[in-house]
Amino acid sequence: ISCYLLFFFFLLKPETAAVLKRTVEALLERGAIVRNLENLGERSLPYKISKHKERHRRGGYFLIDLEGPPSIVSTMMDHLGRDIDVIRRGFIKHPVSKTEECSGIIPVNYEDKLIAKK
Known about the structure:
With 118 residues, this protein is an alpha+beta fold. Helix content is 31%, strand content 42%. It has one domain (2-113): Ribosomal protein S6/Translation elongation factor EF1B (Alpha-Beta Plaits).
């Protein structure tokens, strides 16, 4: 499954690296391949979110482009749900780009070649 993991959290700047490191290590342990990590910056949340006995109005947004088995979604949602630094998390599936065949090369039918030699 090829997807994005979007999550945001409310932390001080030095702790940001620790949360990202924990999240990426958890993805790698579960068999994911991380293609890209993008910082979308600190923004106001779409609405006030109460999480871990705190109210949050702002959060740091991150987007991780990854490829992994479909079973990774439920295990990572559970893992990130227990992380006290993560306010909200979600997976967004994105389509895999199809490779185009080269129009200059004609595929060879090997069955016809074998039959013709007999």
